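Obj: model holo form, ligand = 3,4-dihydroxyphenylalanine.
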Amino acid sequence: MSNNIEKLKEEIRLKVEEALTKEELEIIRNNYLSKKGEFAKLMASMKDLPNEEKPAFGKLVNEAKTLIELILLDKLSIIKDKLLEEKLNNEKIDITVKGDKFSLGTIHPLNQVIEDLEDFFIAMGYEVKEGPEVELDLYNFEMMNFSEGHPARDMQDTFYVEDKVLLRTHTSPVQARTMLDSKNNPVKIICPGKTYRRDEDDLTHSHQFMQIEGLVIDKNISFANLKDTLLRMVRHLFGEKREIRVRPSYFPFVEPGVEVDVVVNNNDGTKRYIEVLGAGLIHPEVLRMGGYDPKEFSGFAFGIGVERIAMLKYNVEDIRNFYLNDLRFLQQFKGDLS
Ligand code: DAH
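Output (holo structure tokens):
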């Protein structure tokens, strides 16, 4: 009888060794250890044994069962480890495999100019503001001293959304908005943004373009402060030796008003003048409409043509290049990507 037990143990050991899956182990357990399994049969056969042999036989059967349980558990954990290892291997990421190629974009040249000037003005204590591109006639014209029917409105025809709602023709309306917000306190802001005009597009004109507005209000602001600021800005952009030319001009919201040209030296010794901005001392009427007493406060304002600066800085001959999204053009500005 004990031989039978040994044979059974051996048989099971072999089967467990060959088993490859949890399911196969389960079948082995069922065949041998369940209520109808081989060990149960052995126990049932005990009744044929003489009484004195029964306890020893029972003990052998139980020991064998415990051993088989252990063998099964052992194998189960081996199979589980193997499964885990396979899973880990399958999910392994090979970081040495070459990735998909994608090309890095560049900061648009117009935004490079804007970011550069933002840094420049922030360093001088200015705050950067924003204003809406869809603007009210009130801020775009009225509060900038272009009353209804004012001839200067003709130069700034635009796209209308409704009768008194339009695409702003300049960033100057941000002056009015800022004054109303600032309630009689000093102001030192710039505002970059898109502007629109009903213009025919050509080499130097576009129906959509960008400006940076500047506004400074305080006590005792003079034309010298304005000129100093603009000269510093031009020299920051184009080098310490660069000169500017300031010409009288007319804008309804400043008095006096000027246009500022950057002086370019031609190869033959002559000079060229390239207009880059309008500026002036804030008109008393504009201060008053913005809630400031012109007897107490004064200020200056300027409006920089971003495209003009970029064309000059990067030697771009056709303004339309900025808007075409042609990679051959844009990739030339990679160098400035910071
Ligand atoms: N807004 C003017 C334009 O687009 C430019 C300008 C001129 C802005 C004089 C100013 C200024 O702030 O003082 O034609």
